[in-house]
């Protein structure tokens, strides 16, 4: 039966690993955004040679399970690379999450860039604006408003995906739950705690997401 006293006993133990989850999320988000911007720009301008490569990259990252990507990178490629073999699990997970989420973010950013009306571009050129002025004064301000809500949603999904980090030995929330489960076998209470912690984090971020959507909508 569910033991409420054990539930509250184990809650702070598992919650203490939230910082690892946030660290993993922040690192992955920074690099995923960087990758997303680069891939989106290549896709937007259809740069010859690079465009085809980015399409394959996006297709593979979006079309294969993140678990398979983690194992392929950390256990597969590692067979042929001492650098990856010696890589810390936290860094390895961050790399895979960055490339995976970067593919999704690139589509959000590319969609935002496409959103800017062609007529505005033509008007800017008719006023004598350079490409740099067009991008900085017209394209980016509008694209940011369009891209922020879906990008924030990508970050929320990224937090959920960090729960797979324990599979490579990262001591995050799920890692702590696995250790406690092996010690006490009280999985009901342990994973109830895990679900509660993730739900609270996602709930708070969901509220922020709604506020951001409303604010961005009022900017139009």
Report on this model:
- It is a single chain.
- With 220 residues, the chain is mainly α.
- It has a single domain (4-218), classed as MetI-like fold.
- Helix content is 82%, strand content 0%.
- The protein has helices spanning 4-15, 18-45, 50-63, 66-76, 82-85, 89-115, 118-126, 131-161, 173-184, 187-218.
- Helix 1 packs across helix 10, helix 3 crosses helix 6 (89-115) and helix 8 (131-161) packs antiparallel against helix 10 (187-218).
- The mean pLDDT is 90.
The CATH architecture term is: Orthogonal Bundle
Structural class: mainly alpha
Look at the structure and give the CATH class: Mainly Alpha
CATH superfamily: MetI-like
Tally of helical segments = 10
**Roughly what percent helix?**
over 70%
Main sheet characteristics: none
- Provide the residue-averaged pLDDT: 90
Task: State the CATH topology.
Answer: MetI-like fold
Number of strand segments: 0
- Cα radius of gyration in angstroms: 21 Å
Low-confidence stretches: none
């Amino acid at each position: 039966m569910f033991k409420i006293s054990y539930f509250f006993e184990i809650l702070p133990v598992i919650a203490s690993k939230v910082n690892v989850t946030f660290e993993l999320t922040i690192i992955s988000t920074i690099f995923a955004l960087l990758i997303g911007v680069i891939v989106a720009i290549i896709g937007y301008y259809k740069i010859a040679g690079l465009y085809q490569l980015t399409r394959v990259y996006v297709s593979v990252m979006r079309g294969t399970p993140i678990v398979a990507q983690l194992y392929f990178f950390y256990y597969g490629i590692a067979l042929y690379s001492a650098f990856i073999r010696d890589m810390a699990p936290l860094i390895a997970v961050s790399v895979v999450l960055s490339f995976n989420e970067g593919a999704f973010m690139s589509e959000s950013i590319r969609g935002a860039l496409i959103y800017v009306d062609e007529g505005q571009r033509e008007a800017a050129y008719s006023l004598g604006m350079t490409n740099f002025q067009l991008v900085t004064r017209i394209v980016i301000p509008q694209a940011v408003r369009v891209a922020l809500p879906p990008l924030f949603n990508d970050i929320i999904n990224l937090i959920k995906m960090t729960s797979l980090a324990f599979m490579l030995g990262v001591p995050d929330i799920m890692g702590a739950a696995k250790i406690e489960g092996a010690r006490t076998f009280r999985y009901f209470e342990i994973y109830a705690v895990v679900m509660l912690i993730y739900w609270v984090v996602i709930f708070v971020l969901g509220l922020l997401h709604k506020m951001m959507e409303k604010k961005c909508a009022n900017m139009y």
